[in-house]
C-alpha cells in the first residue's frame, strides 16, 4: 500500500499537494496499480472518461468526516467519487479498508482518492496516537462512532490549508459518468434522487452527445438544514412538515442568508408535490453571492483551486458558469438536507481571515473571467 501511494502520487498545480487517483476503485473493488492510472505525472480529466449515462455524487472529506460515507452511499445508491484530505495517511488507509469491509454499498459504489500535503509523513513513518489500531478495535456496528472519535478538530482547522476546490476537482476528474453532483459530505440527499435524475436525464435527452457539447443548464437542488433530533425526511412531503413545525429551515439561514436566497425557497415550497418525479420548476438568473448545489454535465468548468479553506470556493464556480452562458434550472422534488443547524459558533477561529483572503482572490478571479470569456455579455455581480 505504501509503495502504491508513493509510486502513483502526482503534484497539484501549486506544487504543494500530492494526489493519488483511484486508490480504491469501486468498479474493480481493488487497489489500483499506478500503471492502471496512467503512471506518474498524469491525472485523469473529464475528456478522458467513458461518460456513461449516469450521475456520480462527488464529495470531499477529512478523516473525521469519513463516517458520513456509509449513509451517503446508502442514500445515493450509485457511483460516488470521494476525495480525502489525508493529513493522517495511515489512519485514512485503515478507515477506507474498514468502510469497505463493513458496507457493500461502499465496496461496490465508492471510489476513493487522496490529496495530502507534501510534508506529510509516509505510511511507515507516521503513527497516530489513536490511529489504525483504534480503528481495528471493534466491529462494524461502532465504526462510524470510532471514525468520529478519531478527530475533534473544528472544520478547516487541520494545521494545513484545506484545498477544498482541488479536492472537488480530483473527485470530478475521477468520475466516469456524464453528469456529476458535487455536494458536501455532511449533506444528505432525498430518497431516490439519483434514480429520479437519471430518468429525468433520459426523458429530456441529456445523455446525448449534442447536449454534452454545451454550454447548457445546470439543475439546482435546494438545500436545507434541520435539528439534529429529527428523523431525516424521505421526500418533499416530510420536509414541508419539518419546515412548518420550525424543525428545518433553508440552508445557511444564519451564516449567509444571501448565499442561498436566490434559490427562491418560497416558490419551490408552494409548488405541488408529485412524488419523486423530477421536472424543471423555474429558472433563476445567477446573482452574487448565490452558491447553489446542482447537477452538471462533467464538461462544465472545473473549480478554481486557488480557493482554499473557507469562503468563495463554490460561489466562484457558479459565477464562472453564469459568465460562460449556463442557465440555472431549479428541480421540483429534489432536495439536500444537513442534520444539525449551521451556527456561527461552529466555525474555526480563523474564518474571517480566510474570508478576507478569498474575497481578494474572488476579485482577481472575476477580472480574469472578462478575458477568458471576452464575448460574454455577462458579469459576476
UniProtKB/TrEMBL annotation:
Q: Does the keyword Flavoprotein apply?
A: no
InterPro entries named in the record:
B4GAT1 (IPR043189)
Which cofactors are named for this entry? Mn(2+)
Q: Which domain of life is it from?
A: Eukaryota
Provide the coiled-coil residue spans: none
Catalysed reactions listed for this entry = 3-O-[beta-D-Xyl-(1->4)-Rib-ol-P-Rib-ol-P-3-beta-D-GalNAc-(1->3)-beta-D-GlcNAc-(1->4)-(O-6-P-alpha-D-Man)]-Thr-[protein] + UDP-alpha-D-glucuronate = 3-O-[beta-D-GlcA-(1->3)-beta-D-Xyl-(1->4)-Rib-ol-P-Rib-ol-P-3-beta-D-GalNAc-(1->3)-beta-D-GlcNAc-(1->4)-(O-6-P-alpha-D-Man)]-Thr-[protein] + UDP + H(+)
Topological relation to the membrane, as annotated: Single-pass type II membrane protein
For this protein, the record's Pfam families field holds:
Glyco_transf_49 (PF13896)
Q: Which UniProt keywords apply?
A: Glycoprotein, Glycosyltransferase, Golgi apparatus, Manganese, Membrane, Metal-binding, Signal-anchor, Transferase, Transmembrane, Transmembrane helix
* MF terms in GO: glucuronosyltransferase activity; metal ion binding
- Its signal peptide is none
Would I find Ion transport among this entry's keywords?
A: no
Q: Which GO terms describe its cellular component?
A: Golgi membrane
Q: Primary place of residence?
A: Golgi
Pathway field? Protein modification; protein glycosylation
Gene Ontology process terms (BP):
protein O-linked glycosylation via mannose
What is the annotated localization of this protein? Answer: Golgi apparatus membrane
Q: Which stretches of sequence are listed as region Disordered? A: 28-52
Write down the PANTHER family for this protein, in alphabetical order: BETA-1,4-GLUCURONYLTRANSFERASE 1 (PTHR46420:SF1)
What family is it from? Belongs to the glycosyltransferase 49 family.
Can you name this protein? Beta-1,4-glucuronyltransferase 1
Its gene is LOC100905308
